[in-house]
Write a structure and sequence with these properties.
The protein has seven helices and 14 strands. It is of the alpha/beta class. The protein has a six-stranded mixed beta sheet with strand order 5-4-3-2-1-14. It has a six-stranded mixed beta sheet with strand order 6-7-8-9-12-13, covered by helices on one side.
């Protein structure tokens, strides 16, 4: 049996306070690493929250247009290299097109041991995001070269669309990861959706939500680590914390060996 320890960092994000949030996130990540975690998942927009009032100053960019050189990403890369770990989350990105048009994205990232494994720009925008952000144009899994596994990263609202997780699983995602700012009063929906995405794809699911309050919402947490059967291995409450759990990487193969939902799809009908 091949196992790997994973962690959710369930943060109370301080609105628009990038430095404080990054310091807190890395301190909590280090505590998870001390308990053996190799994959650490941060909430959606973990460094700033949805800081619409000051978007220009908090959004990440670089002169070279390389994601690796975005200030927060560069700091996280250094941390992941030092501790030989994987960091996953999302930040606000600013991109300037050739015609000097400025676009903002909800940028998901995956870093492994000092290297940028991949990024994902949120494709399904919710609420005020539609006013401020552009949508991404591609959904594909991210390969972790050192660990030899593939992650399917989705962001918050996308949990409601089974097509997103299935689009990640079909090319070979081994673990589904959701980073979120799922707000009150939707805790029941969150729990149902997180487990359903694992069950219908027969895949482990790391679902990391935030806690605390923002100008327009409050957040309940309930981050969860689910196994490929859809069973909740560990669930956080509604306070700031981190959770750590071991994932059996062989479980998906054993389950699909009995009954493979992917193989039993009737593609001539849908």
């Amino acid at each position: 049996m091949v196992t790997i320890k994973v962690s959710c960092i369930q943060m109370n994000i301080i609105q628009c306070s990038k430095e404080k949030n990054v310091v807190k996130a890395l301190l909590m990540a280090k505590n998870a690493i001390d308990l053996g975690a190799k994959i650490i998942v941060l909430p959606e927009a973990f460094s700033t929250g949805f800081c619409y009032k000051d978007l220009e100053s908090v959004a990440e960019s670089s002169v070279s247009h390389k994601v690796e050189e975005y200030p927060t990403i560069a700091e996280l890369l250094g941390f992941s290299k030092m501790h030989d770990c994987v960091l996953i989350g999302s930040i606000i990105e600013k991109k300037v097109a050739n015609n000097d048009t400025i676009k903002y994205y909800n940028l998901g990232f995956c870093l492994e041991s000092g290297n940028l494994s991949g990024v994902y720009r949120k494709t399904h925008l919710y609420g005020m995001e539609k006013t401020y952000f552009s949508r991404g144009e591609q959904i594909s899994p991210i390969k972790l070269e050192k660990l030899g596994i593939t992650l399917g990263l989705q962001i918050c609202f996308e949990l409601r669309f089974p097509e997103v997780s299935r689009k990640l699983v079909l090319p070979g995602a081994d673990i589904l990861v959701t980073v979120a700012e799922f707000a009150n009063p939707k805790a029941t929906q969150w729990k149902s959706l997180v487990t359903t995405r694992a069950i219908e794809n027969q895949i482990p699911h790391i679902a990391c939500n935030r806690v605390g309050t923002a100008p327009l919402a409050s957040y309940f947490g309930n981050s969860m680590i689910i196994n490929a059967w859809g069973n909740v291995k560990v669930e956080a409450g509604n306070e700031e914390c981190f959770i750590v759990e071991e994932i059996d990487m062989d479980e998906t193969q054993r389950i699909r060996g009995k009954v493979s939902l992917l193989d039993n799809r009737q593609l001539d009908l849908y």
